[in-house]
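Thread: quick sanity check before group meeting

JM: Hey all, I'm pulling together slides for Thursday and realized we never actually wrote out the predicted structure for the chain we discussed last week. Dropping the sequence here so it's in one place. If anyone has concerns about the input, flag it before I start.
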Amino acid sequence: MKFRLKAFSLHLLGSATVLTLILGTLYLGWYRWPGWYLADATQVVTVLIGVDLVIGPLMTFVIASNSKAHHVLARDIGIIVAVQLCALIYGATSLWSGRPLYYAFSENVLQMVQAYDVSTDEAQLGRQKNPELAPHWYSLPRWIWAPLPQDQEEAKRIVTGVIASGADDVISMPRYFKPWEQGLPSLRGQLKKVDDVAYFSRGEKKRLKERMQVAGFATDQMNTMPFTGRGIPLLAVFDLANLKLIGILPKK
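JM (edit): ok, ran it. Output follows.
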C-alpha cells in the first residue's frame, strides 16, 4: 500500500504541475474574465481534469505494485501517461484554437471573437489592409469596434450572407475593425435600460438589477448592453460620463 500511495502521489504531482502550467498560461494570457465564461471552456477543462488529475493517478494507484517487474510497471505507467498526453493535447489544442482574440462592439451588442472565428484568409486580408488590428498567433485579446463597411453593397452582402447561410459576420473580418474609441459614439446610442436588453428573461433581468444595485450601478438609466459569446450571455454596464466599462455581470 505504501508503494502504491507513493506512485499515486508522484503521478498526481507531475500531472497537476503540467496541467497548471498549461491552463495557467492560457488563462493569464487569453482567458481572463470574461473570456473563460463566454468561451464556455468548462467542458474541455473538465475532461482535462478528469483524465489528468483523476483517472490517470488512480490507474497508477491500481496497477502499481512492488512485486511487478520494473519493465512491466514502466510499460503500464507509460500507457497511462500516453492516454493522459492525448487528452492534454486535445484539450490544449481546443483551448488554443478557441482563445479570445477580440471583444468587439458591433451594431448593438458586445461579442467575443475567438481564434477559430477568423479564417486564415480573413486574417491574411486583415494583415494586408488593417495591420494594426489584424490578428497574429501571439495576439492577446483586444477591445475593438467592428462596424459594417461604409460600402452599402458590401454591407448588404455581409448581412444577407449571415442571415441566409450563416456566413462570416463582420466581427470575423479584421480588415473592417476600428479602434475601440472610435466606436464609442455609436455605442452610446445602443445602450439600453436593463429591462429593455435582449437575451435575458424577465426573471434574469430582475436578478441582474439586484446585482447592479448591490454593485452601486444605476438600474434606471440607459447604461447596459448584452455581452455574448459561445457561452451564457453577460450584461455589460457602462459609466455614462465617459463610456468606461464598469461592470460585467452574469445572469445566474
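AS: nice. The chain is about 50% helix and 15% strand. The longest helix spans residues 2-31.
JM: adding both to the slides.
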